[in-house]
Amino acid sequence: MTRKTNAPFSFVELPGGRSREKPRRAGLTMIADFGLPYGMAGDLVRMAGRYIDLAKIAVGTSRLYDLAYLRKKLALYKGNRIRPFIGGQFQEYVFAVYGAKALRRFLLEARRVGFEVVEISDNCVPLSDRERHDQVRLAVDCGLTVFGEVGSKDAKHGARDLLRQAGICFSAGAELVLVEAAEIIERGRPKKKLLAALRDGLDFKRVLIELPGPWISGVTLSEIEDMKKFLIAEFGPDVNLANVMPHDVLETEALRVGLGVVGPKFLRS
């Protein structure tokens, strides 16, 4: 029976396969924050914070904030049990421009600013296996939690390469691994065999699948929605989704529980 709540339409039961209590161990939703103003972020978490688990302060935007404003925003997320983290392309930039010797300073600065989690990726700046391992390990040694990203926005990798990269991240101490969206979409369609191989080779509770976005050339809004629908249909309502846009949080949750545009068919056996 559905518990009595003050929710509207509470007689409509939600599926048991969807995790609803935070902190969630599966069914994570990560929003991509490319510069959401504090007031809008506050409205978002008041409306839908219970459906958001992670917030990526995307690319190098953290450098452009006023320090007090950024800290206030990070505190807002943390106060609503949303874990903010720095997008990996900022560290890629530091590594490319200033070299490996600058990474410890970058990571310690991340802690000083108020971050507890960083993403380590090689979207645009390739990393060797050793560099990937060492960068994850360095961040852990600096007292940070690490989300490692596998795959690239430019080069295309097979399942074996992505699984190897994920294994390196986990062995070095990463908590979660994100799969770069550009690796799993081709001509607007999901690479089903690749995704199946990743599911077979990894603990998907520790993997977030990135949704594509307009930053990937040629990707349309309908293709983003199609990928989201496919992932929920294929892996269930508790699939971990990354790069959900802030204005799409409720729509994404509706898809998870069968209340979205495709109706309840995903929930049928």
Describe the structure.
There is one protein chain. With 269 residues, this protein is an alpha/beta fold. It has one domain: Alpha-Beta Barrel (TIM Barrel), CATH 3.20.20. The protein contains nine helices and ten strands. The protein has helices spanning 38-48, 67-79, 88-98, 103-113, 129-141, 159-172, 192-201, 221-235, 249-256; strands at residues 29-33, 54-57, 83-86, 117-120, 145-150, 176-179, 185-186, 189-190, 207-210, 241-244. Strands 3-2-1-10-9-6-5-4 form an eight-stranded parallel sheet.
As laid out across the biggest beta sheet, the strand order is 3-2-1-10-9-6-5-4
Total DSSP E strands: 10
Order of helices and strands: EHEHEHHEHEHEEEHEHEH
**How many strands, which pairing sense, and closed or not: the largest β-sheet?**
8 strands, parallel
The helix content is 25-40%
Mean pLDDT figure: 92
What is the CATH architecture assignment?
Alpha-Beta Barrel
User: What name goes with the CATH superfamily?
Assistant: Aldolase class I
In terms of structural class, how would the helical and strand content be classed?
A: alpha/beta
Uncertain stretches = none
CATH topology: TIM Barrel
Instruction: Please give the CATH class.
Output: Alpha Beta
* Strand portion: 5-15%
